[in-house]
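G., before I forget:
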Amino acid sequence: MDWTTAHHYTDIRYELSDDGIAKITIDRPEVRNAFRPETVIELSDAFERAREDTSVGAIILTGEGEKAFCSGGDQRVRGDSGYRVGGNAAVGRFHVTDLHVQIRRLPKPVVAMVAGYAIGGGHVLHIVCDLTIAADNARFGQTGPRVGSFDGGFGAGLLARQVGLKKAKEIWFLCRQYGAQEALEMGLVNTVVPYAELEATTVDWCREMLALSPMALRLLKASFNADEDGLAGIQQLAHDTNLLLYAGEEAREGRTAFLEKRQPDFSQFPRRP
Ligand code: S0N
């Protein structure tokens, strides 16, 4: 598969295929692709880039190398009040909070391509992606209680929806690791393939989606998120519907009438049963 670098970053790579796939790679293999604040800031920028690029229809999130997808927050820059930019800012924060929301909000399918460890905050990253393609060497798990941390947001709630409440509690309470086949059996990933076939399979899945209606995929993603995200989820679905309304004659009549300083004539439009 040929990828073209579309933007240069320090901690990640942003690449495009020639047929509508963006690939975002966390490129810190020396720490098993742990993310520091700068990594998350770059990830956020890359996802925004992929969102705005109308030639992109599917996005792959992955980690460099076969040892890890992502090992979560970089523990070397974890301070007493969160993660510190540059490792020494006086006050830290959780930059990844907004990234979770951004990935869910992004109206294009996001596919996690996982080889090796998806651990801690790295595990949550794959949970918030729409699909997960796992290599046979993938290992999944949470470490929060072991390192004095937890993610009670999507990291707990979405996981419970994906694997069931008892299993989700087991994953968080015991901090065990699970192999790819076990992850498949519990509904945590979509498929497992040999590592050598990981990228080709992920690209195939993306291409299958690229052949489908982008608006239908967008509305499906919003629909799956709607009840989980409460009013924000309904808002996304409603605004997507508004996009469609704007494209029709009925909404155009309202806008045109306003611009022409006349009363709108909606009598020509059906009151649908
Ligand atoms: C991934 C593991 C299992 C890999 O084991 P392996 O293959 O034996 O390699 P190691 O020798 O352990 O590691 C190789 C080198 O990489 C460094 N390293 C690995 N992970 C990290 C990391 N997360 N941060 C910094 N460095 C890391 C190792 O130190 C080693 O370096 P050298 O060679 O110099 O010794 C294994 O490495 C492992 O278990 N890693 C730690 C996993 C972990 O606990 N991650 C953090 C979990 N917490 C979060 O992710 C929190 C996320 C978050 O931001 C958040 C979100 C919402 C709410 C709260 C939080 C919050 O932060 O609390």
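The chain is about 45% helix and 20% strand. The mean pLDDT is 95.

More on Monday.
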